[in-house]
Amino acid sequence: MDEEKCTGCGVCAQYCPVTLPDPHNQNLTTYKAIDILYTQAIPSTFVVQPDYCLFLNKKECKQCTRACQTGAINFDQKPEISEYEVGAVILTTGFKDVNPAKIVSYGYQESANIVTGREFERISSASGPYGGKISRPSDLKKPQKIAFVQCAGSRTRGTGKEYCSSVCCKYAVKDAIVALEHEPDLDITIFFMDMRMHGKGLEDFYERAKKSGIKFVRSRVAEIKRVVDDEDLRIQYITELGALHEETFNLVVLPMGLEPSAGNFSLARAAGIDLTNYGFCRADLFAPLNTSRAGIFAAGGFLGPMALPDSVTQASGAAACAAELLTPTRGTIIVEKQFPEERSVGEEELRVGVFVCNCGKNIAGVVDVTDVTRYAADLGNVVVNVDNLYSCSQDTQDLIKETVIREKLNRVVVAACTPRTHEPLFQETVREAGLNRCLLEMVNIRDQCSWVHANEKEEATLKAKDLVRMAVAKARSIEALSEPIIDVIPKALVIGGGLAGMTAALSLAEQGFACVLLEKSDELGGNLRNLHYTLSGADPRSYLHELIDKVKSHRLITVHTQAAVERVNGFVGNFQTEITRGPEGGKEQEELEHGIIILATGATPFRPDEYLLGQNDRVLLLHEMEKKLATGEFIPGDRDNVVLIQCVGSRDDTHSYCSSICCSMAIKNALTIKELNPRTQVYILYRDMRTYGFHEDYYTRAREQGIIFIRYELENKPLVTAAESNVRVTVRDPVLGEDITLDAVMLGLSTAIIPDRQDNLEAALPVPRSAEGFYLESHVQLKPVDSYVDGIYICGMAHFPKSIDESIAQAKAAAAKASILLARGYVKAEPIVASCAEEQCIGCSLCAAFCPYSAITISKKGKGKKAEIIAAACKGCGVCASYCPSKAISVGRFTDEQIYAQIEAFGLKK
Amino acid sequence: MSDTIQEKTVGAVMVVGGGIAGIQTAMDLADTGYYVYLVERSTAIGGIMAGLDKTFPTNDCAI
Questions:
Q1: Chain B 2-61, residues with CB within 8 Å of chain A CB atoms
Q2: pLDDT tens digits for range A633-678
């Protein structure tokens, strides 16, 4: 297929006689031997499947080449070997599902009604095989009772998949909630061992699922069997108490565990890098995105199973790693596209050109495009009206450009597909013809006419005429808009000198940007100072000192300790920050100027009034116990009992979220005690063990070493009383159904990890936080380090509790995002920003109060107040304009005048 | 030694794998000023995410 010629119209697939299972829909539907993987696929080129194509296998057919009107199909193409010179390589090859057929007792191959999680994703998708109607594959009936079976292909001894796949609990809950949104009366049960809903917002999501009626059954599923002479399925499961139960379901979902991609081994060999025993890429705790070979980095599923936000974070982090390495070459190869100077059209008489697209048969098959094009000629100020086979093809682009120049057009209307995907392309075309890009108006006669009215050809044509008439009416009043350019001060401010802050500052400095690092205490290090051991055995103390040395000695980093932020003025690219620094009594003030801010203010363990903490010196926070173990202050004895209680002030009314890392920290300390004295008895009282990912191995090791795990319910918390020479812990064992009493020499509490909040910083920099007080990212999945304020990024535990490697990856990601602005040196505001007519503004400040992006300031002007819009921060959402009582604010490209013109044109039925 | 490495350094990066991680890393590098070759085995970029229905927590469309 010639990518340049293929317009993605899809006529070839209509003519192709060969159908095959559609991998995008998990083989639940079919597609053609020449087809596109899915409608929105990029590149939007149709592709031949060589194993199935009749012509390639039997030398007959070629229906597609006859159908293709652009001559894009070329059966003479051969695979080519290309060589590229690059400065770094980033491997992001992902993971795949464990093959469900391998778990024989789960009977995947016995019944069509046992589906994988990814199959279920397609079943619930509106663009999936059943159009979003929850149906089961065997008879397309609605499955009233659905079961999800967790840990399918994960956490299983002897399979090479002993690890936890980290994401299956989360996506099972999501799938169950989505299914209920489709069909509220479904009866859904999730069979699980531990619900691992670690991570930001997920515990609340879990609670929401429980409240919506989804049943959670703590158990191990032994067998899934098809009911004889029926399409239903019988699940045999063993509960915690050891009882065997059976229940029948209409559909069973296996949210499959994740395993390395099939090509990992050959890729590792080709790249000369190491893999772990499990077959994922090997990386170090303190260099989590580096492979074993310099210059080759990794991110996402190639490193192990992980959720979307972690993948995205690592991806940005890996970009920073490569950028640090290649700093001297930045900007040496890329070239920015140049456009001719813009023609000023202000004084010209209106000359509108209307270009109507056939989109092959996609539009023309329903809408009478010739009729619509002819109709446009009679609309006022229209001087050109033509139709094109494919408006987006390169030759048509050239034609539009030539027409604009030749006919001196000053407004261009394109009636085609969706502006969401194609507006940037047509804007570029008019720019190439010397017009401002805002002089283009696009109208969607594909989605809104030919697609939704496929069976009403006449009405679809009438509607297309209406839309074109409205677009021309609007086009008459659209005008050229400038894109304000704001310089960025190429300096960074990093607030918080813990692991995340130091890592971010170092990455920016390595990329050549000057950086000020503020720390409120008198030394760098933050929570990393509290760590004496790690699960993998790597030494956190020596890494801490190495990192501090690097930060302090870097010529581009200025460190201020005992520092506080007093005031922040300005906006993206141009911040002015007043700080105080130095010891009490000798505080100095300083004003800093910088283009971006990274918030790495960290978190601290919660100190509860519970379990005798602060009243009995045998009760300690977990990190305090770790210190006593490391310094030899506490030497566990042969007959000693040590008890650790998890989820203290966590996952309850005090703090509803799960702090993610405490289970692994408890295991680490328990193993340390066992290493110091194998005879010491260690008990971990937990609610769910959330040793996600490869930490599961250490949970297994802990059980093998005789560490005893006792689960407790929130309603039945352990009871702690002071005894003579120790503390007495009483806990109800759910398996025995009885109270157990443990006399412990030491009681360690894993408490919630709460964000570090400082009043002065909050007042100076009101960056939105979650209800729990962690900084909010602007998009949970896709923008995990961008705050809601442009130019301010978040990382480390200020975002949410996380492990060392996760903190480092996120700090690098924040540095990557910041360096985009710092390297470019300017911010370009979109033309759709709001503007305020000062003479009409009454200074009521409603707009500023409602602006979600802090893009409006109210300042004194003469006698009154006036609103001022910071173009660099405005996103053009229009909230301000809709609230403005004096109509002083208008939004570029969507002014009242333009919208009224459209509405009036709609009323002018012809 | 460092000079020879410097001479050979190229301001381009190859990203292998066009799922969400590969796309993100490629975009960040290009935005920072590096030329990127994004290599994908399948016929479209998007990887596993393209096949997901909705995403946590807003149940936004994944595509």
A1: 6, 9-25, 28-35, 37, 41-60
A2: 999 999 999 999 999 999 999 999 999 999 999 999 999 999 999 9
The reply to whether A47 touches chain B by the CB within 8 Å rule is yes
B-facing residues of A in 236-265 (CB < 8 A) are: 263
Looking from the CA of A794 toward its CB, the CA atoms found within 13 Å total 29
Cis status, amide bond into A100, omega within 30 of 0: no
Q: Read off the DSSP letter of residue A338.
A: P
What mean pLDDT value characterizes chain A? Answer: 94
Q: How far apart are CA A25 and CA A37, in angstroms?
A: 9
Q: How many CB atoms are closer than 10 A to CB B21?
A: 33
Rounded distance between C-alpha atoms, residue A401 and residue A405, angstroms:
6
CB spacing of A334 vs B60 below 8 angstroms: no
**pLDDT tens profile B27-55:** 999 999 999 999 999 999 999 998 898 88
Helices (H), strands (E): how many in chain A? Answer: 22, 43
Residue of B nearest to A181 (CA): B59
DSSP class of A864: E
Spatial separation of the C-alpha atoms in residues A268 and A311, rounded to whole Å: 20
Over the stretch A465-517, which tens digit does the pLDDT of each residue have?
A: 999 999 999 999 999 998 888 899 999 999 999 999 999 999 999 999 999 99
Q: What is the pLDDT of residues A454-468, one digit of tens each?
A: 899 999 999 999 999
Pick from A55, A49, A269, A250: nearest CA to A137:
A250
One CATH from 3.40.50.300, 3.40.50.11310, 3.40.1690.10, 3.50.50.60 for A95-260: 3.50.50.60
Point out which residues pair with A598 in neighbouring strands: A494, A793
Buried b (16+ CB within 10 A) or exposed e, B38-61: bbbeebbbbbbbbbbbbbbbeeee
A538 residue type, one letter: A
Query: Three-class SS of residue A67?
Result: helix
Contact list in B for residue A125 (CB cut-off 8 A) is 53
Fold adopted by A352-477: Rossmann fold (3.40.50)
Q: Would you give the DSSP letter of residue A54?
A: H
Q: For residues A400 and A717, give the distance between their C-alpha atoms in angstroms, rounded to a whole number.
A: 73
Question: Which chain A residues are Cβ-neighbours of B47 within 8 angstroms?
Answer: 94
Helical (H) or strand (E) element with A75 = none
Cα–Cα distance, A854 to A690 (Å, whole number): 38
List, in sequence order, every residue forming a beta bridge with A88; answer none if it has no partner.
B13
Cis peptide leading into residue A184 (ω within 30°) = no
Angle at A158 between CA A116 and CA A644, to 5 degrees: 90
Question: What's residue B3's pLDDT?
Answer: 44
**Best CA proximity match to A332, nearest among A87, A101, A45:** A87
CA-wise closest residue to A688 among A190, A97, A255, A314: A190
Q: Which tokens sit at A401?
A: 């450009």
pLDDT in tens, A577-603: 999 999 988 899 999 999 999 999 999
Q: What is the CATH number of domain A834-907?
A: 3.30.70.20
CA gap A653, A337 in Å, rounded:
56
Which helix (H) or strand (E) element contains residue A331? Answer: none
DSSP A152: B
Which backbone phi and psi does A580 adopt, to 5 degrees? -115, 150
Give the H or E element holding residue A906: helix A896-907
Query: Tokens 């604009």 identify what position?
Result: A404
Task: Identify the architecture of domain A606-753 in CATH.
Answer: 3-Layer(bba) Sandwich (3.50)
Q: What is the per-residue pLDDT for A592?
A: 98
| A42 → chain B, closest CA residue | B44
- CATH number of the structural domain A492-556+578-602+756-823: 3.50.50.60
ipTM score = 0.93
Of the partner residues B6, B11, B58, the one whose CB lies closest to the CB of residue A333: B11
